[in-house]
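Preliminary data (for renewal application), zinc ion complex.
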Amino acid sequence: MIIDVLVEINVGSKNQMFSYNVKEELQAKIKKGIRVTVPFGSRKLEGFVMDIRDSVEKNTYDLKEIINVVDDHPVLTDELLELGTYMSNFYLAPLIHCYQTMLPVALKAKRNTKINIKEEKYICLNKTEEEIKLYIKSNKSVLQNDILNSVISLGKVRKKDIGNQNVLRTLLKKELLKEIKEEKYRLDSGDVNNIQIHKLTPKQSDVVNLFLEGNKETYLLHGITGSGKTEVYMHIIDKVISKGKKAIVLVPEIALTTQLVARFQNHFGSDVAILHSRLSDGERYDEWRKVERDEVSIVIGTRSAVFAPLSNIGVIIIDEEHESTYKQENSPRYHAYDIALFRAGKHNAKILLGSATPSLESYARAKKGYYGFLELDERINGKDLPKVHVIDMKESIKKGHRIISLEMIEKIKEKLEKKEQVMILLNRRGYSNVLTCSNCGYTYKCPNCEIAMTYHKTSDTIRCHYCGYADKRESECRECHAKNLKDFGVGTEKLEEELKNIFEDIRIVRMDLDTTTTKGSHSRIINDFNNYKYDLLLGTQMIAKGLDFGRVSLVGVINADMGLNIPDFRSSERTFQLLNQVSGRSGRKDIEGEVIIQTFNTDHYVIECAKKHDYIGFYKREMAIRKKLFYPPFCFVATIKIMSKEYEYGFEISRKIGNYLRNKLPNHVVLGPTMANVFKIKNVYRFGCLIKYKTKEEINDVLRELIEHYGVGSKIKLEVDINPMRL
Ligand code: ADP
Ligand code: ZN
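Predicted structure:
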């Protein structure tokens, strides 16, 4: 028997597939998608079996033999095998990357990543119930009988839960009881609470029925924040499960899983598996196994949960479908929706995209009838969306309030007095964004990247947010030695300090990348805030989405225009989405909600539309611009990033690539090369070209040739991104 094995080798080689012989005694175990260990040069590698053949071919005598077979059954199902080929072709990514990205660490083709299965010891009866009952009747030891009775009534008891281990030992010796081991999952799946979900409102009910009965493959649910989308998801899943089918629910961020998972577990109990990157490798492996063994009907997770090996999928729900986290930023640069679409096709399942601010692409598709369109335009609590006040920071600064406007201060005071809660968004972590010498003008920049360092006061360090480089803050200027270092701009740390200065006894909790590095910190902050251990939650965009706190009556946004200046055709769209999402956190239950947006661009259409919660208005304005400039959804986009350690060389090659593309694709718009938004990262210069295309097939071969040409041995590195979310 000869097999083709796909391995991951880091030489950028085009071919990662190699043939091996399989000796007689291992042949029965070989299946497609199973992992094997193979010799590779002087190393041993793990790889996936891709193809199995008889060894009657020529030239097989010099093939090496595989060392062993890793798994009992394939880690890649037939469906995932096929999906990998599709991804590799569509995203022009190495096949091995596609498979590795689907699997939890413990199941990737990598050595020394194996996870132990945890076991729990249980005690159960070793004779029939009648025999044991007879024994109890004639037995005088009360202690023994207590244990026997509890095992009879419970069926099995965890060994460590039995109080008197000596007595237990006697019973085991008498062979009345026996010990068994069962696999124990690391994550507690919670009890089956089966708490009833709410009875749907007539509008919600319509949405559920239209979705279940309609004949489109994908539906877009445009529902304003607090309109009961999550509740709709649960009802749909209820119906899907009652037909014996299963569901995948994708959420954009881990922070969101906490509340959503709790709601799902309350209703569906242990029928839920959770998959996201904050789980330990062991936990992730366990959750994956639950799915693989058909023990759950629902998988909730972030992007990669779309690969969960569920059988018989009935629905795939993508919540907050517009979020850029659904796109993977490294190879394979896939979007969860594309994967969902492939899988829905295989399972004959439906896809539901939900959002209060759908991506322009999705909304346009729904309007054109490619997607079914569903709408929820009222809040469940019957209240209007929160009133939004826009504060002109140019005026505020004149009055001496640089960071927090007087209006915001008064409103916070008012809410605190009423014992309501406040959330404040500032989408920049750290203390300040630039550290500059006011004597000579020297600005601290990252030595490896073309970017100013951020000052972090808590650790008294300056840090690069691109490469992670960190340094102690110096007391005098590196250039002129004057003791005049000044920091400019405001990050979440400084904002926290400001708020504490203004409000004496305020209880503040901050949620950003710096306060959520340890496991479980997300959920702790969210739970504590929910239990009113804090008055004010401040944070980066992490706090903007999906969270449901009943006591929050004020949401404040500092520097709302920050994202508008990023040179990316989606910067307006993203800013609008962020403002709309965060506004939606206010006034979700019984209390009236309010929002304050601080901005320097009061008359920008993004701010105007956010003020009125006017998605349609925004959609129209933005579509007009996209049409004029010819950007998605009027075309698709692919980017080619060219990275080089040498500036001149990188630029030269980039120009060649730009010209090559223009030459080969005369019917397409090719832009560039331009310098990337952050031009130098980790001492590597970055250039970019951009292609606007209509059909993917037309550009595929040209791009593939390019990738192959600049593959092995090239001095530049090339990255192709099909439909990037960020330029
Ligand atoms: P969204 O996901 O659209 O933001 P949610 O599903 O979180 O909205 O609903 C907002 C709030 O309204 C939640 O607290 C939820 O429990 C409640 N809710 C949703 N649907 C109903 C209903 N039919 N009856 C009563 N309360 C509901
Ligand atoms: Zn850096």
